[in-house]
Design brief:
432 residues; alpha/beta; Purple Acid Phosphatase, chain A, domain 2; 10-stranded mixed sheet; 6-stranded mixed sheet; 26 strands
Length: 432
């Protein structure tokens, strides 16, 4: 009988070295990670020494860390990684390619980014206890310039990430739909698009739809929000899953996605659920979600498991070492501003943002077991990232055993029909 144990954590936004002797709670975290055969982490950071130029737009903060931080992550026991996230191209293609260079030099197995779309889309593989495991890394939250491009017979591809684009349609009843049409007439926001249609360059919207600027509205009998994964991207990813299934025993998919159900940040957008289901149907056993910096529910689906978001694992966003001119200019600060002053300004002297959101500083480590290619156990271990710690000490994980937090996780999972048993600071998901 073939049995392989898996663990996965959420976002590793690491900005500084982990102390050589660890920290309070470090040994317990490492012991848990190393007790599993396959250990996944999402690297939400670029790792290089100013080897790329700052992009015009960042993923929120321009994220760059000392490449030696990769040694610290690896030392914790992780052995397979995703690199596709909203910070992948914070330092343009140079930063992305430098990160790839350091990952390869340190013999770290990763996926999600590459020198072209083919490289970024393909899985990476890890051998564990007699099983070959494939991982495919995907990101839905990105600036379009960060998405990798394919090669042609004439030109090379574009470095970037394995992107999942999506479309949002706002369904409106007739009264509100007519209001949108009237608003377009008053503002003339669609003048350019309408001229493009008249000259034959553009296409008119489908019957029953209306585009206001770049927002799509659909005439319906009630109001609701629909989001759909881009079909070309979806089919490309499904093809990679099916191909990986032919040469691996188990296929995992990692999705970095911030998108939510309007302002319900703990509820994934509709397209994320659609994407996750189609990945499992294509042959994946687990979909590992991360990105919103807080937890989301867990779903059991067709023999697989979907973690819609594991939250954070390491979150040191307030101690980034560098920020570019663009960050300071956005806050009307002089170019000789230091990062500490910038962070104080951005957080209004630590009175807003992540600093005052306790839910950001709690998360889970997922654990599951696959025996003979079947899911046989799923557990959740709660962690704390030190919400009450001083600013310089924020962001490092320790096991918390917080059963109240696990009960919150259970509530978020109920809409998917998922049931959990919480005991001794660990949640065990009842398999169907």
């Amino acid at each position: 009988m073939s049995k392989v144990t898996y663990t996965a954590t959420g976002d590793a936004f690491i900005t500084r070295r982990i102390p050589e002797k660890g920290y309070d709670g470090y040994d317990e975290i490492v012991k848990l990670i190393k007790s599993h055969d396959v250990a996944f982490s999402n690297l939400e950071m670029t790792f290089h020494d100013k080897e790329g130029v700052p992009a015009a737009e960042s993923g929120g903060t321009w994220a760059m860390a000392d490449p030696r931080c990769l040694d610290d992550i690896k030392k914790m026991g992780f052995n397979i990684y995703n690199t596709a996230n909203n910070h992948s191209c914070d330092y343009s293609h140079g930063g992305l390619l430098a990160t790839i260079k350091y990952l390869k030099e340190k013999d770290m197995i990763f996926c999600g980014t590459g020198a072209n779309l083919g490289d970024a889309s393909k899985p990476c593989f890890y051998e564990a206890n007699g099983q070959r495991v494939a991982l495919i890394g995907v990101c839905s939250s990105f600036k379009i310039s960060a998405m990798a491009g394919g090669q042609t017979g004439d030109l090379p591809g574009r470095p970037g990430l394995n992107g999942l684009r999506h479309k949002t349609n706002y369904h409106l009843d007739k009264e509100r739909f007519d209001q949108v049409v009237d608003l377009a007439k008053v503002t003339r926001i669609n003048a350019g698009a309408e001229r493009s249609v008249r000259t034959g360059y553009g296409n008119p919207p489908a019957e029953g739809t209306f585009v206001l600027g770049n927002i799509s509205f659909v005439l319906d009998d009630h109001c609701w929000i629909e989001s759909i994964p881009n079909e070309k991207d979806m089919q490309r990813i499904e093809k990679e899953i099916r191909e990986a299934k032919e040469v691996a025993d188990v296929v995992l998919v990692s999705l970095h996605a911030h998108e939510c159900d309007a302002d319900e940040t703990t509820v994934p957008a509709q397209f994320i659920e659609t994407f996750s289901h189609r990945c499992i149907d294509a042959g994946a056993t687990a979909m590992i979600g991360h990105g919103p910096h807080e937890i989301r529910g867990v779903e059991l689906y067709h023999g697989g498991v979907i973690f819609y978001s594991l939250g954070n694992f390491i979150f040191e966003t307030e101690t980034v070492e560098y920020q570019p001119w663009d960050a300071y200019a956005n806050k009307n600060m002089p170019i000789d501003t230091k990062v500490g002053s910038y962070m104080l300004n951005r957080t209004k002297n630590r009175t807003c943002g992540y600093m005052v959101m306790p839910e950001i500083w709690e998360a889970v480590i997922a654990s599951w077991t696959i025996e003979d290619k079947k899911l046989t156990e799923v557990k959740l271990y709660p962690i704390s990232l030190g919400y009450m710690n001083p600013w310089p000490q924020l962001g490092l994980p320790k096991l918390s055993g917080d059963e109240n937090f696990l009960r919150r996780m259970a509530e978020l999972s109920k809409p998917y029909g998922t049931e959990m048993e919480i005991k001794d600071g660990v949640a065990t998901i009842k398999l169907q």
